[in-house]
Structures are given as C-alpha cells and as structure tokens.
Amino acid sequence: MEKLRLSDVIAWIGGLDLPTLLGAAVTLGMIGLLLLVWRGRLAARDATERLAEAQMALAGRLSQFADSQVAAQGNLAERMQTQERLLMRTLDERLTQVSQRVSESLHKQAVDTANTMGDLKERLAIIGKAQENITKLSADVVSLQEVLSNKQARGAFGETQLADQVRNALPPSAYAFQATLGNGSRVDCLLTLPNPPGCIAIDSKFPLESYHALRNARDDRDRLEARRRFSADVLKHVNDIASKYIIPGETADSALMFLPSEAVYAELHAELPEVVEKSHRARVYIVSPTTLMATLHTIRAVLKDAQMREQAGLIQKEVAAMGDDVSRLDSRVAKLQQHFGQAEEDIRQIRISTEKVQKRAVKIQELDLDEIEAQDLPKIAQSGGE
C-alpha cells in the first residue's frame, strides 16, 4: 500500500461535493466525540483506580497510624503508670520523711517546752523566794528603822556589829568584850595585844540623829546648824573615849571609835575633816566596818609576828638543848669507836688463828698415810705440838 500523503487527502476532500463534505464532517465530528468520550471514560477509570489505590494507601496509612497510636497510647499508659508508681513512691517517701521530721520537731519542741516549763518553774520558785526575801527584808528594814530610832537599841546594834567583826578576824585569846578597866570604865571591846602597843580599846558610837539632821537640811541655815550639832556629837564621843579608855601603863596610847555606818563615816570625812583631825590629835581613830576589818587584819598580823617571836625564843632554847645532846652523843660515839677498835683488833687476831688452823688442815689433807714411815711420826707429832 502506498503511503497516504496529506496532499492527496486534501485533494480528495477538495473533489467532494458540499453535502458529502458536510456528512463527512459530521461523521468525523461524531467519531471525534466518541473518541473524546472514550478517552474520558478511560481517564475516569484511571482516576477511579488511582483514587482507589490512594484510598487503600490512605487506609493502610490510617491503619498504621492507628496501630502506632494504639502502641503509643499503650506506651504512654505504661509510662504514666510507671511515673504514677514512681510518683506515689516518692510522695510516700517524702511524706514519711516529712512525718518523721514533724514528729522529731514536735518531740524536740515538747522537750524544749518541758525544759522551758521546768526552767520557768525554777525561776518562778526563785522569784517567789526572792519575793519572800524582799518581804522579809522589808520587815527587817522596818524593824531596823525601829531599832535605829531607839538610842539604846542603836547602841546594841553597833556593839553587835563590832563583836561579829572582831570574832571573824581574831582568835578568842586576842579580845575581850565589855571589859572593865582599872578606872572602872567598861569598854565595848578590848584587844589584848602584847607590848608595844598594849591593849587597844574599841568603843561603838552612832550619832544617827545629828547625821539625819545634816542630810535632811533644807537650806544653808539648817545645814550649818546640823553641821555644828553633828560635829559637837562626834567630838563629845571622841573626848569620852580618850578620857575613859586611854590609860597610861594599862592600855595603848590610842583607842578606836567604831561607827557602824559607812554613810556616816563617809559624811564625816567629806564634810568635817577638821573633826577627824581633832580626833587624831586626841589619839582616837574613827573607823567604819570596812576600815575596822582592815585594822583587825593588821592586828592579826601583829599577833602572828609576836607569836613567831615567842616561838623563836622557844626554838632557840630547844636548839641549845639539842646542842648539849649532840655533845653527849659525840662522846658516846667516841667511846663506841674505841670499843669497835678493840673488837676489830680481836677479830684480826682471831682471823690469824683461823688462817693457821686452815693451813694445818691443808697439810693434813695432803699427807699419804700409806707412805708415812715410822720415823716420820715423831716429826709430825712435834709439828702438831707446835
């Protein structure tokens, strides 16, 4: 078959009449339409197949996704259970620790509270006791005020305080209370010291009214009057002590005036130094409880020194007697040495004799009795006689 050329087709179409050409065109159009429809169906079928494949692939993917989701949910559930168990265990441990700490803290707080309550009770007891002491002290102060308001009771108070200090500082042999002197005067305390200085008298005085008047003076006039009265009272006591308790040949050339109040003593030295100087010239020395204690300690040292001097004399006598004993012992040792010398000579002579006996015994042991001849016997006998 010859190859159909386009020019031949065109020439053939050009040779057809119009109706035939229209019919051919319609036929071609129908054929083209059928081809288009057929191609569309083919395309639709392909699309349907592809869609089905896509749906199947999607279904597979969805199935895989669902499986993975199920697996993931299972893993997640397992992990959540594990985390939950771990969380519960951790919470349980934490709760146990917290409970233990709270229990320990409560126990410690209970112990601390008990200790605090015990301390509080002790302090309350101390406070109660202190309150009782304060109440008692208040009563004692009121009683002391009543005592000090009475002149006779005030004198007894000063004498008691003086006696307590003397007893605490000195041995009983060094003092005497309410001692009577040669002039008939009775002193509160007499310190019995060796000469010098001799016995020292101590008398207690308490010019409390004039002191209170000086302290409570409202103006210069009242103060001047109270000062004059206080000075006069103190000087009167000083002169009385000097005239009664300083006795030449019996007591020391000085005495002590005891003021049982540090406040009165300080006021006297601060406001009335001229009165203190006058008391010194009268050889009456004013002392307070503090200065009296220092004075008593000094006196105790003096007593110890006197006792040491007395004991030193006794020691010297004993040493001299011991020297005589040593001399007698030396003469006896010399005699004993002579006896020892004679005994030593006797022992030496005895040793010489024993050595001779030992030598003869050795000679006898060395003799052979079997070989001794009859003529040797007289020699041995002669030798033994020697």
Please describe what this structure looks like.
With 386 residues, the protein is of the alpha/beta class. Among the domains are: 101-149; 151-312, Trna Endonuclease, Chain: A, domain 1 (3-Layer(aba) Sandwich), CATH 3.40.1350. It contains 9 helices and 5 strands, in the order H-H-H-E-E-E-H-H-E-H-H-E-H-H. A hairpin with a 5-residue loop joins strand 1 and strand 2. Helix 3 runs parallel beside helix 8 and helix 4 (208-215) runs antiparallel to helix 5. The longest helix is centred in the N-terminal third of the chain and has 132 residues, at 18-149. It is elongated and about 200 Å long.
Look at the structure and give the mean pLDDT: 77
CATH architecture identity of the domain at 151-312: 3-Layer(aba) Sandwich
Give the helix tally: 9
What fraction, in percent, of the residue positions are helical? over 70%
- Rg, please? 71 Å
Q: Shape, please?
A: elongated
**Biggest beta-sheet profile:** 5 strands, mixed
Number of strands: 5
Instruction: Tell me the name of the CATH class of the domain at 151-312.
Output: Alpha Beta
Secondary structure layout plus pairing:
Layout lengths: L5 H10 L2 H132 L1 H19 L5 E6 L5 E6 L8 E5 L3 H8 L4 H26 L9 E4 L3 H10 L1 H9 L2 E4 L1 H78 L10 H9 L1
What's a quick, concise take on this entry?
By secondary structure, the protein is α/β, with parallel strands linked by helices.
